[in-house]
Design brief:
Layout (H helix, E strand, L loop, with lengths): L2 H21 L19 E2 L8 E5 L1 H4 L8 H4 L5 E5 L10 E5 L2 E2 L4 E4 L2 E2 L13 H4 L5 E7 L16 E6 L6 E10 L3 E10 L6 E13 L6 E15 L2 E15 L6 H7 L10 H18 L27 E17 L4 E20 L11 E22 L2 E22 L17 E22 L4 E21 L5 E19 L2 E12 L13 H8 L5 E14 L2 E13 L2 E4 L11 E4 L3 E13 L4 E14 L3 E3 L2 E3 L12 E10 L3 E10 L2 E2 L7 E2 L2 E11 L9 E8 L7 E4 L15 E3 L4 E9 L1
Parallel strand pairs: 6-9
Antiparallel strand pairs: 1-2, 2-8, 3-4, 4-5, 6-7, 8-9, 10-11, 10-39, 11-12, 12-13, 13-14, 14-15, 15-16, 16-17, 17-18, 18-19, 19-20, 20-21, 21-22, 22-23, 23-24, 24-27, 25-26, 27-28, 28-31, 29-30, 31-32, 32-35, 33-34, 35-36, 36-39, 37-38
Length: 762
Amino acid sequence: MNCKLVFRTAACVAALMPAVAMAQDAAPRTTAAVADTEDAEIVGYGTGVVRQEQTLSARSIAILPPGSSPLKAVARLPGVALQSADPFGSYELGTRLSVRGFNQSQMGYTLDGIPLGDMFYNGHNGLHVSRAIAAENIASVKLSQGAGGLGIASTSDLGGNLEFLSRGPSEDLGGEINATYGMNDTVHVFARLDSGELSTGTRLSLSGVYHDADKWKGYGKQTDRKVNASIVQNIGDGTLTGWVNYSMHKERNYVDLSPATLSRLGYDLDFLRPDFATAVLMSQVSANQTANAAKRPLPFPTAGTVFPSPYTNVNDTYYDSGGFREDVLGALALKLPLTDWLDASATYYHHYDRGSGGIYTPAVSSPGGFPLSVRTTEYAINRDGGIANLTGRLGDHTLRLGYWHQENEARTDRSYYAVSDAVRPDVTELLTNPFRSDFLTDLTTLTNQYFVSDSWQVSDAVTIAGGFKGARVENGITTKFGTPFINGKIAATDWFQPQIGATFKAGEQEFFANYAENMRAYISSFRGPFGTTQVGFEAIRDNLKPETSRTIEGGWRFDLGPVRGVVALYDVKFSNRLLAAFSGANILGNPSVLQNVGSVTSRGIEIGATYRIARALSLIGSYSYNDSSYDDNTVNGAGLVRTKGMRTVDTPAHLAKGEVNYDDGQVFGNFAGSYTSKRNLTYTGDRTVGGFVLFDAALGYRFAETGRLAGFEVQVNAVNLFDKQYIAALGSGQFFNNKTSINNTMQAGSPRQVFGTVRKRF
């Protein structure tokens, strides 16, 4: 933990304490509790906001199968494409989110204002929201599809941001217990206890999650353990809030597919575990083929040179692969009014993470010549940060000034662990005693960001909002040992990123327009500028440019009585696109070369609406069209790649979604369908993945508030109701130039899954 940063943040809080003391005798206490009533909208369309924005209520998460990532709820919004190999969307390696053509790591994410980083699987600056908090503890989710707010603590928000707000401790004593059982021996238990408001003005909550689910194919299970604790102390008109969230996440991976393996071996292909004999035989045959080609004696004569049917290549599949992540994320936030026109807030946060991703590889033999080993990439993160904001109300103006500082120390190493007939390491655990380590690197990221904004209420009909932010992010690497040996620093700086927009109200209708510029900082990762040699780094350090985006958008928010919604148009220029070019199969772990490869133009339309047919019945629908294409050809180690004018990879042109929601207080349900059009698998567009339609359903019943079953609720969920076979996530390995170079980089979507849940609130 960074002591200097803690001291500076504590000093900031201490400076505000005299104002806290003065405020204690002021107006009555306020509460941060979020109520979710029957009349609450499932989707809010951003009324009064100058940019495209929607908000989801807790109801949108509660209707999902328990254990689902909140990203599954976000997928119902216009412009959002989410694919996952598992039914919950919580399998991180096989889940992909994109918005308006921007991928998951080009968005910004916060939880109660605390940065979650870019949610990249090979974690370097944060953690996935599925680990950051139990989904049952989320009160709302806000999506900005294009231009994120100026005050968002993110340096990756080229394509917008997601803001998750937690459910604070209740004012009333109570709690809930939820238990779920379903297909593939899924067990999910959530329990929460709220203290209510004590005589001291204190409110506390404690909750926990137990989740185990077998994979829908192959061997192994996904495991989650979470503990969330929070406290809120009312201090006059202000609040002091603290929370700590713990997560332990284990996942057995699903095997990556290629068009070739999908054609030969089908959607059900997975890792070989527990068939160790076949895994050993395949690695022996591969070694024999290599020796035979070099005219050397076969190292394993009895294995021969032909792979066991139905396999034809050592990279068709492997024995096992998995990951482990353990996180502690905590924050302390003080919010209070300094005067009747000036409010202040100060937040300190800390994040600790350790983790590993492992795979049984035939590329490196164990000591003694056994033809398999376990290759791991191991991670550690220590992040400390502080956020301070001032909000002033001066006449028709609301002024905001904010500053964010973060110091992040990370460590990455690549190691190999011995395998034998008697020793088979568990790839979902942190392993010890490697027989070989390729490298150990210390990575640092220093972030400083500020913003200034003003919202001017020109009249009852017109609001103009604008401002700017600036940031400098310095990335450093120190190689302790290994190859490639690389040391150095690189920085991304842009002190002026403007944003300006306006809204105009005409009766119940509202029109908005917005212009914004954003920069994405470099990442301290082997997929960033450090994933090369020292010579390669020196060659790119002074010439590399950070990715930037320019977003212009506008639209109409309509209120036609029972029908409310939004129509938005956008034009985005994504410049200085960075591409890390790899060589060889993914399992080889070869160095990459990072380079700027031109720009992308993205234009489109988003339509979303809610039709309230009756108090208990509503329809929600959306349609999105996106035209994202590369503006330039690309030159890499393979020569000229003709990408100009090609649609960007993993970007569907059409997304259509519709759902029926019913809730009369006792019976409730949801029937939802979504269409995703075809997506490019290669940069040249010569290989695509077909479109698909999926349906999900939920049905539940709340028992009367009196009697033995008071407070009980039952719910049944079906995911992929009609059992559609389809390809979900793309790019799980990487993307490729053309169809002749494609490697294993696709994930099959889960078949139909059914779950039943019992809830008890008290």
